[in-house]
Amino acid sequence: TATDACVSITNVNRVRNCEFVAASCIGVKTTFALDLQFCFFNGCATSISTGSNTGSIINNIFKVFTKAIDQTATTALTVIQNNTFYGGTSGAPAGTAITFASAQAGCEVVNNIFYGCVTAITHGTANQLTNTEDYNCFFGNTTNRTNMPTGANTITTDPGFADVSTNDFRISVNAKARGAPYDIWVPGLSANNISYVDIGAVQ
């Protein structure tokens, strides 16, 4: 657990099972290919600042932020999948969940929940059709996306978190974010008879 650090972890390529609480500046800052999984960022001004051209950010929770993911690389092939971004209540949105720099292409943003953000996803250049946004759940944001294509399978309904006050971000069994046909197929998992996963970081 890292608490109130200006930069908690620098120049790493794998971060897993960590908790960052009220870091006043940046939780993780790296120029390496970042593999980030199963982490909880709570109250960080910027949760992740990455200048890498590749990486994967999967199954993490971002709660209350100015910027959750600030991708500063000039080009990127980043996969951002099955994360939960909670900026604030739907009536008082706050923060930007994902910020892409101007030249980034080939990024995949899939199976995430964006709840209560001022802006969920923003890209520095208009009409970035080489990026993918799909199978996400947007709810209570001021703006869902800027300069990103709209996914055909994206939904805009309340995910029904169990109890945000206790950081319980499990989604309601009745929510559209849970269960087919709103899931995305994940290549490789079908070999284990698991062809689909729910939206968000916690099921």
Please outline the helices and strands.
Elements: E1 2-3, E2 7-10, E3 14-16, E4 19-21, E5 26-30, E6 34-37, E7 40-42, E8 46-50, E9 54-58, E10 61-63, E11 67-71, E12 77-81, E13 84-86, E14 96-100, E15 108-110, E16 113-115, E17 119-123, E18 132-134, E19 137-139, E20 143-146, E21 184-185, E22 196-197
Parallel strand pairs: 1-4, 2-5, 3-6, 4-7, 5-8, 6-9, 7-10, 8-11, 9-12, 10-13, 11-14, 12-15, 13-16, 14-17, 15-18, 16-19, 17-20
Antiparallel strand pairs: 21-22
What does this protein look like?
This protein has no helices and 22 strands. The relative contact order is 0.12. A seven-stranded parallel beta sheet has the order 1-4-7-10-13-16-19, with no helix packed on it. The chain has a seven-stranded parallel beta sheet with strand order 2-5-8-11-14-17-20, with no helix packed on it. It starts with a strand and ends in a 6-residue tail after the last strand. The protein has strands spanning 2-3, 7-10, 14-16, 19-21, 26-30, 34-37, 40-42, 46-50, 54-58, 61-63, 67-71, 77-81, 84-86, 96-100, 108-110, 113-115, 119-123, 132-134, 137-139, 143-146, 184-185, 196-197. The chain is mainly beta.
